[in-house]
Write the structure tokens for this entry.
Amino acid sequence: MTNSPQHPLSGHWKPTHLQAMHYGPNSVEKHLISCLPSSTSKAFIVTGSSLASKTPLIKQVEALLGTTHHAGTFSNIGQHAPVAHLDQATDAVQKDDAIDTLISVGGGSPIDSAKAISYRQHRRSGKFLYHISIPTTLSAAECTLGAGYTSSESTKVAVAHPELVPHVVIYDADFALETPERLWLSTGIRSLDHAIELQYHPDASDVPAKQLGLTAIASLFTYLPKYKSDPKNKDYITRLQLASFSSLCGMGTAFKSGLGLSHALGYALGSPYGIPHGITSCLTLAKVVNLKSNDPDSAAQVAPVLPFIGQSPSGDKQNDAVQVSYAIERLVKELGLQSSLSEYGVGEDQVPKIARLATGQEKGQLYDNVVSLVKSKL
């Protein structure tokens, strides 16, 4: 059970407009056409170059759509969704007024790009586009109403609207088989980041957000190591996809702010330094949870995670929260995902800038704590 500091217990949850979620091997072939909003829908595929050029997946989706439904494909979305790529994709969509559906295939960058295209289309025409997402990583971008892309100055730009949540999500283990192991595992830690930071977020409801987050944490700790030992096991893949969904689907549309400090650090490190968000979570999550353990309210929210990762609570909330941080650190190491910021060209001279971006402050206790945290990962 969750352990809310609120007495009496109260909260609020507002669902998204998600209409369907399909999962299991061969789900795309089974369900894609029936998920289109109409029998005459024209769909535009948004994806990255690796999936388009190095796997058969995009050709498979195009073949399923056929000439009846396929309106075009943009296959050049890069890491962190550079605005130049987003502009090109948006232009391609806006040239064809018949397009009513976007199909994002890939990780967070194609999914967020499709959301941003829909946002731009709404500003142009007053209508959002229908969105079907086929994720191939565990980033869980398909679960949220926000979209992020990278400006020409290498900073994160965010847009958000309840209508940006994909209408349909299709988790297909056969599609995920094409994902590189390190990318799959690191985005699994990104999902863990979501689920952990939900536990102490002030807008997160006890049910379903935090409760689903706890089930996600349990599954991620169980199945990420199993997947590493057997990366072709479709059952493990599907269970991890469902864990990724559970990590954020309970978020709904009532959140007034971003998830938490680990995510803020991820944004400060990701786009500016070209670090994948899965790796930023590997670098920051354990350290942030350890830092949060010093705050009694946050520690009380993190401590209930302990039995979900196979450990017995001590009754000391601060100690239990610290043990959660140690368990995250061990999991990252077990998965072979340890790294340092210096490997990505981040030097000590960049630490103040990163701390400012992550905290919105230039001094104070939080700023100082983040400076120390970032220095520890150089």
